[in-house]
Amino acid sequence: MGKVSYMKLKGCQNLRIRLLLATLSSKSIVIEDIRADATWPGLRPHEVSFLRLLEKVCDDCVVEINETGTKLKYKPGIIMGGRHLVHDCGVSRSISYFLEPLIVLGLFGKKPLTIRLKGITNDSKDPSIDTFRSTTLPILKQFGVPAEGLELKIESRGVAPKGGGEVALSVPMVPNSLKAIKWVDEGLVKRIRGVSFSTRVSVQFENTMIHAARGILNPLLSDVHIFTDHKAGAQAGMSPGYGISLVAETTSGCVISVDTAVSYSRGEDDTDLEDDRKDLIPAEEVGEQIASALLGEIKQGGVVDSTHQGLLFLLCALCPKDVSEVRVGKLSPYGIEALRHIRDFLGVKFVMKPDASTGTVNLMCLGSGFQNLSRKVS
């Protein structure tokens, strides 16, 4: 075996997409100066947990972390997938932090992936589990991912700070490769659907959020339906909280989503939580804010919301050597970083054409020709 050549990177930014692209492109990386000047230097618990997750779904990957956690060496292995896997995501980030890279890896595994993830299902930092089910999975289907075997089940909900949520994810293998797409027409909004949830608080919080959201949305569109999902007992996790996820469905099959969750912050003293309920954002305010946020995403235009831009660009880059064209609203910071890392790891460059009249951006690329070479050939 020859000496391993490492791509050198610096800083803690975009660690997930760096590790994901390194795994897909089979490029070894070394990342230095990970929060070297911070009060608490080095990798955070959720980043270490993500590395452990990679070790579970990949064979022969090598992870080396120095004593201070400020330097990481990663040599990718073969994406295996596998059935009946279990991973505890911890409580420093939600399960969704792990889901986006995991579903992409699962598509190109040697075997279909079924995994049970434990931790926080809903928080204000990452997309909620509901958003993944209603929005992220349909985006995959646009690229030819089989609908059969693609599933996300919510076994129990859990919010910060203690979590207690659990989901079951199933991802099928891509038969050979994804399919290139032309996806530029977002259409007109025809209906809005949503899910509100509450754990260890009164169901009245959900009713208040829904009433407030409908107060803003109903004057604009009559077809608005928001379901309630009140959890109790073991299915309610270990902390009180509530939240809501809204999805706008369009005439051309696009789904634009926003969500939020309200709970006590991580690391707080958990004593007397019941007496601190007043510190949480009122449910009425949550409903109004999330409805306004959805209108903002719709106004921005594009076939996906700002949260899903990075995933959209990555899927385009992993397509066969054919042209894909997509349209998005204003580029999000994460979307921009995703484009840069896709260029560095996969050699795929996007041609961007801003449309001044709509404020949207058309992006075109020639796919990398990525194929699922690790799958079992029957």
What is the secondary structure topology, with strand pairs?
Layout: E1 6-10, H1 15-25, E2 28-32, H2 45-57, E3 58-59, E4 62-65, E5 72-75, E6 78-79, E7 82-88, H3 95-107, E8 113-119, H4 129-142, E9 151-156, E10 165-171, E11 182-183, E12 189-199, H5 204-217, E13 224-231, E14 241-250, E15 255-263, H6 283-300, H7 309-317, E16 323-328, H8 333-346, E17 350-355, E18 360-366
Parallel strand pairs: 1-2, 7-8, 11-16, 12-13
Antiparallel strand pairs: 2-5, 3-6, 4-5, 8-10, 9-10, 12-14, 14-15, 16-18, 17-18
Helix pairs in contact: 1-3, 1-8, 2-3, 5-6, 7-8
Structural account:
Strand 9 (151-156) and strand 10 (165-171) form a beta hairpin. This protein is an alpha+beta fold. It has helices at residues 15-25, 45-57, 95-107, 129-142, 204-217, 283-300, 309-317, 333-346; strands at 6-10, 28-32, 58-59, 62-65, 72-75, 78-79, 82-88, 113-119, 151-156, 165-171, 182-183, 189-199, 224-231, 241-250, 255-263, 323-328, 350-355, 360-366. It has a 4-stranded mixed beta sheet, covered by helices on one side. It has 8 helices and 18 strands. Mean pLDDT is 94; it is low at 268-278. It is found in: Nucleus, Nucleolus. GO terms for molecular function: RNA endonuclease activity. Belongs to the RNA 3'-terminal cyclase family. Type 2 subfamily. It comes from Solanum pinnatisectum (tansyleaf nightshade).
